[in-house]
């Protein structure tokens, strides 16, 4: 063999070496796709207190809670009350943390230094064990931080079972305080406290909005209360088995129809976390993704076979729902497609985990923002189910994990309507200054025994809605009457936005909040959700979303940025409701007709508007008047607030539509209750009469919502509330009546248009 041939032979790679290289490549690829090792998160701030305990307490997960003497420097209190279960009948199976407590008869505060601002867990442990000196079961108290109300007039639900309240708070300063304030004559207590740093990326700023659909931003600025954390189809996960010391409950007790689901699980080693992704073991441990519920009958596409979880919820709050998915059921890619529903509304249509994760058994989660207006029967429903009549893949649906978190409201509260600084009354004082002929006037209020009642001027003809649908025996309004009602409401809203010292955004404009007096003069009512408008230096007010389903500005819902243009959008819905005499949302109608605003806009674009107009108006509307009216309504419903007109422009267009209608009436007949748009004056309102019956409406609000301000309050004003509570209609007390008249006569009628 020549030297050249020998040299060429030395360049050849033996077959077994090629095989080894190939196997090594496969191994590297497998390691790249394998689940990353468990992430060890070390919290920067980690305060664990066993309140009232003489010595420190170590739990089985290794965490050590400081004793009361070790944590006394965190507490500011005028008393030193520590109690222990001792030899009482307390349940000894509970954690040792629950067998001691701190008791407060007066306002007391725990303060913690924060070395790194950001998301922090706050966990409060309560167990009302028997004690000879202090009755913990009767405790009523409030707990708040410097800017968030955590608990308001809280009392333990059960003296038998321990309660843990878990929060995810945004701490922006170098200190967080927890203030316990017992109600007068009661006491407060706490068994243990946790204040622990949370990972920075645990909660994203954006979520998928549910009705209206779209991106919901601003989550990172909200305080959250963890209401439920469920390991679907698997056992309970205790803190020592979680990557962040969380507890995941089994979902069995939350299945609406347990027979509709069946459990499945795989080894945690089979679970993969995608690289360069926000889905890490800190979001949820592999134990959560390794179990799931699938449809018990996985070969049906009937939507009635959806798997449904139901959980109690507070309908006055919006919620963040996090759903965890991992396809551990499929044998091949692109074989699992299903729908996701929340409160009966489509959350995700045709969810395809394969396209989202590019693999099987790969983790995925998604956040949804659920508006309070979609919560009925104080229940949140989460459903997964097959795609009806779809030939794609095998009909099935799965869910691996579920977290439900309450979002703080506009007052910065997670429990009730009161803010930390008591701004409930601040808003009342602000609204009490509003005086306009097209705004329902507040007469007075009282607040006693944690109950508030507000009294407004008597509006004999009730809400506009009743006059559109023929309810309560009211005849349909003529087109001219409807225009005058809308003009009056527009004047009231225009005054709110521009007439006060600082503009006010109503935030709940709808036909039930536009009331008519005995002369059919319209007045805007119910200021319970109102907010001060942005100042000249601001473009918007950042606040939690509030409003009514069907009238809510989609841009406000997505961005949580409130402006006067949100009222303009809602008023646009009202204008179409007045024209069509149908609700803003009617789920019983075909899908394309459910939402009035969308249906009306589509009909107008197709040139079919006459088909949706109230039949009672057939042939009674001038085409020119209708054109100008619809033009005004359509502009109000622009997608972006900057493209919507101001209320003053809407008012001008409506008055012009009325003039066009008058111009074609050959023999206009004067009608009762003509507004100033027709040149008639508005009659002075009579003093309020608190009565009950079919003759009219006494605007009395007892749901503790801040609508307007007290002109008087106290024990004398409470007399009328007792009278109503005893079911004695029409018996307004003489002393109360006289006081009403005095207040009414002294009220200025300035600041009117």
TrEMBL record:
Keywords: ATP-binding, Glycoprotein, Membrane, Nucleotide-binding, Signal, Transferase, Transmembrane, Transmembrane helix. One of its GO terms (cellular component) is membrane. InterPro entries: ANXUR1/2-like, Kinase-like_dom_sf, Malectin-like_Carb-bd_dom, Prot_kinase_dom, Ser-Thr/Tyr_kinase_cat_dom, Ser/Thr_kinase_AS. It is found in: Membrane. Residues 677-686 have a biased composition (Polar residues). The keyword Transferase applies. Residues 384-657 form the Protein kinase domain. Residues 1-34 form the signal peptide. Its main location: membrane. It is a single-pass type I membrane protein. One of its GO terms (molecular function) is ATP binding. Gene3D superfamilies: Galactose-binding lectin, Phosphorylase Kinase, domain 1, Transferase(Phosphotransferase) domain 1. Residues 667-686 are annotated as: Disordered. The lineage of its organism: Eukaryota, Viridiplantae, Streptophyta, Embryophyta, Tracheophyta. This is Protein kinase domain-containing protein.
């Amino acid at each position: 063999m020549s030297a050249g041939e020998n040299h060429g032979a030395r360049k050849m790679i033996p077959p077994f070496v090629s095989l080894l290289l190939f196997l090594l490549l496969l191994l590297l690829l497998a390691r790249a796709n394998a689940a990353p090792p468990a992430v060890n998160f070390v919290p920067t701030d980690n305060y664990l207190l066993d309140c009232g305990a003489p010595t420190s307490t170590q739990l089985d997960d290794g965490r050590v809670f400081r004793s009361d003497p070790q944590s006394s420097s965190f507490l500011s209190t005028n008393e030193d009350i520590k109690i222990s279960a001792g030899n009482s009948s307390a349940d000894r199976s509970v954690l040792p943390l629950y067998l001691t407590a701190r008791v407060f008869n007066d306002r007391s505060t725990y303060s913690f230094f924060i070395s790194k601002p950001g998301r922090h867990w706050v966990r409060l442990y309560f167990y009302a064990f028997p004690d000879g000196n202090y009755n913990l079961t009767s405790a009523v108290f409030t707990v708040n931080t410097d800017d968030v109300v955590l608990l308001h007039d809280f009392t333990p639900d059960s003296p038998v079972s321990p309660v843990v309240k878990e929060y995810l708070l945004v701490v922006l300063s170098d200190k967080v305080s927890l203030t316990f304030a017992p109600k007068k004559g009661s006491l407060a207590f706490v068994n243990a406290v946790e204040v622990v740093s949370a990972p920075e990326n645990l909660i994203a700023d954006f979520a998928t909005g549910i009705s209206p659909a779209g991106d919901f931003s601003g989550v990172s600025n909200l305080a959250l209360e963890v209401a439920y954390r469920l390991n679907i189809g698997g056992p309970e996960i205790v803190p020592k088995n979680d990557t962040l010391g969380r507890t995941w409950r089994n979902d069995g007790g939350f299945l609406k129809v347990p027979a509709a689901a069946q459990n499945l699980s795989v080894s945690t080693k089979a679970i993969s976390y995608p690289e360069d992704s926000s889905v890490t073991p800190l979001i949820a441990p592999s134990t959560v993704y390794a179990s799931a519920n699938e449809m018990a009958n996985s070969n049906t596409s009937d939507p009635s076979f959806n798997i449904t979880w139901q959980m109690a919820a507070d309908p006055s709050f919006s919620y963040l729902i996090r759903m965890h998915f991992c396809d551990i059921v499929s044998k091949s890619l692109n074989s699992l497609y299903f729908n996701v529903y929340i409160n009966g509304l489509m959350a995700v249509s045709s969810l395809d985990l394969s396209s989202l994760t590019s693999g099987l058994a790969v983790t995925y989660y998604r956040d949804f923002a659920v508006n309070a207006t979609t919560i009925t029967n104080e229940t949140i429903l989460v459903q997964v189910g097959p795609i009806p009549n779809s030939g794609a893949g095998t009909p099935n649906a799965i869910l691996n994990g579920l977290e439900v978190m309450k979002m703080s409201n506009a007052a910065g509260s997670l429990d009730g309507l009161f803010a930390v600084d008591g701004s409930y009354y601040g808003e009342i004082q602000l609204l009490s200054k509003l005086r306009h002929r097209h705004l329902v006037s507040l007469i007075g209020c009282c607040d006693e025994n944690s109950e508030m009642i507000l009294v407004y001027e008597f509006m004999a003809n009730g809400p506009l809605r009743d006059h559109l649908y023929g309810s309560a025996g009211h005849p349909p309004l003529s087109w001219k009457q409807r225009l005058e009602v809308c003009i009056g409401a527009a004047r009231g809203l225009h005054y709110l936005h521009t007439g006060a010292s600082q503009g006010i955004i109503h935030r709940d404009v709808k036909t039930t909040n536009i009331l008519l007096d005995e002369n059919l003069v319209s007045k805007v009512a119910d200021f319970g959700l109102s907010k001060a408008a942005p100042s000249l230096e601001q473009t918007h007010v950042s606040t939690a979303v509030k409003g009514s389903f069907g009238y809510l500005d989609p841009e406000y819902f997505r961005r949580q940025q409130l402006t006067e243009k949100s009222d303009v959008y809602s008023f646009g819905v009202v204008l179409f409701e007045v024209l069509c005499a149908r609700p803003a949302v009617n789920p019983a109608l075909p899908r394309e007709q459910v939402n009035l605003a969308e249906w009306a806009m589509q009909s107008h674009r197709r040139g079919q508007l006459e088909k949706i107009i109230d039949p009672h108006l057939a042939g009674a509307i001038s085409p020119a008047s209708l054109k100008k009216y619809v033009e005004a309504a359509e502009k109000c419903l622009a997608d972006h607030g900057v493209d919507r007109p101001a209320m003053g422009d809407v008012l001008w267009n409506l008055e012009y539509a009325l003039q066009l209608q008058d111009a074609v009436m050959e023999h206009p007949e004067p009608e009762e209750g003509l507004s100033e748009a027709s040149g008639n004056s508005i009659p002075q309102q009579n003093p309020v009469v608190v009565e009950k019956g079919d003759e009219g409406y006494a605007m009395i609000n007892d749901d503790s919502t801040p609508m307007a301000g007290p002109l008087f309050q106290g024990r004398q004003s409470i007399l009328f509330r007792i009278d109503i509570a005893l079911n004695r209609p029409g018996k307004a007390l003489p002393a109360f009546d006289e006081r009403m008249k005095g207040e009414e006569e002294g009220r200025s009628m300035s600041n009117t248009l």
